[in-house]
Specification:
Order of helices and strands: HEHEHEHEHEHHEEEHE
Helix content: 25-40%
Shape: globular
Protein name: 3-oxoacyl-[acyl-carrier-protein] reductase
Pfam family, one: adh_short_C2
CATH superfamily: NAD(P)-binding Rossmann-like Domain
CATH architecture: 3-Layer(aba) Sandwich
Strand order of the largest sheet: 3-2-1-4-5-6-9
Radius of gyration: 18 Å
Family: Belongs to the short-chain dehydrogenases/reductases (SDR) family.
Distance between the termini: 35 Å
GO biological process, one term: abscisic acid biosynthetic process
GO molecular function, one term: 3-oxoacyl-[acyl-carrier-protein] reductase (NADPH) activity
CATH topology: Rossmann fold
Largest sheet: 7 strands, parallel
């Protein structure tokens, strides 16, 4: 224990960055919170694997990191494709010279509907994307986390206040985000004792992304079978309403960079004794 404490203390100078020498997979990092997290990780010395279904955006983030002096590669594919997950892990290991230190399960979107109108497809798609895919990725990467070489390793799962408090119109998303919190705690209990792997969830509140922007802005995703899903919230409703921030003590939404900073915090040695937690990043909402 004293040796570990000494190692942590030695990190306090961070001469080469908080994540120097570590290898991180960040899913859904072609834009938004994921892209910001990738840039922050790279700035702190990590070798970052950009995972996204959008090839142009993923490659753009990787290129911007490399041009800024960081190290990143883009591995493009669909998180719902089991073969892609195998490729993602293999390429991450090759890029990281045989190791992976961090997985950030961030990929996802919302496909809202009230309970009595929600289709099986809406339900199955969101559960698969936010629960099954992260589980399969973690399982695929297990050989690189269940090791005793003394290196830091952690898994950060992106959740939501919908998974803690529920949210009208989001039965599928609320269940999925609650489920990822359960997976997080299970990883912490299974892989913490012998291997020292930390696992935490971050439950975001109102963060400025395409999921909380006005639906009229036209953001969308396309499912593997070609169906288009409109993203965002209609103007005047929810986080688009004039009084949307009145129940937030800070009286504003969070930025993608602020959200990404909380991911960096949990990945860093500053959080070396934090595991199995659901960290609320909400500007104080729901306290």
């Amino acid at each position: 224990m004293a040796e570990r404490a000494s190692q942590i203390a030695g990190h306090l100078n961070y001469p080469k960055g908080l994540l120097a020498g570590q290898v991180a997979i960040i899913t859904g990092s072609g834009q938004g919170i994921g892209a910001e997290a990738a840039r922050l990780f790279a700035n702190e010395g990590a070798r970052v694997v950009i995972s996204d279904i959008d090839a142009a955006k993923a490659k753009g983030v990787a290129e911007s990191i490399n041009k800024s002096g960081g190290n990143a590669i883009a591995v493009v594919g669909d998180m719902l494709d089991a073969e892609y997950l195998k490729t993602l892990v293999k390429k991450a290991v090759d890029f990281g010279n045989g190791k992976i230190n961090i997985i950030v399960n961030n990929a996802g979107y919302t496909w809202d509907g009230v309970i009595h109108k929600m289709t099986d497809k809406q339900w199955d798609n969101i559960i698969a994307l936010h629960n099954t895919a992260p589980f399969k990725l973690v399982r695929e990467a297990a050989p690189y986390f269940r090791v005793t070489d003394g290196e830091p390793r952690c898994i950060i799962n992106i959740s939501s206040t919908s998974g803690v408090h529920g949210n009208a119109g989001q039965a599928n998303y609320s269940l999925a985000k609650s489920g990822i919190n359960g997976l997080t705690k299970t990883i912490a209990k299974e892989w913490g004792p012998k291997f020292g792997v930390r696992a935490n969830s971050i439950a975001f509140g109102h963060i400025l992304t395409r999921l909380t922007a006005a639906k009229e802005d036209g953001a969308f995703v396309t499912t593997p079978d070609g169906e288009t899903i409109a993203l965002g919230i209609p103007k005047g409703q929810g986080s688009q309403s004039t009084d949307a921030n009145l129940d937030i003590p800070l009286r504003r939404a969070g930025t993608a960079t602020e959200a990404a900073s909380s991911i960096l915090m949990l990945a860093s040695p500053l959080s070396s004794y934090i595991t199995g937690q659901v960290i609320m990043v909400t500007g104080g909402r729901n306290i």
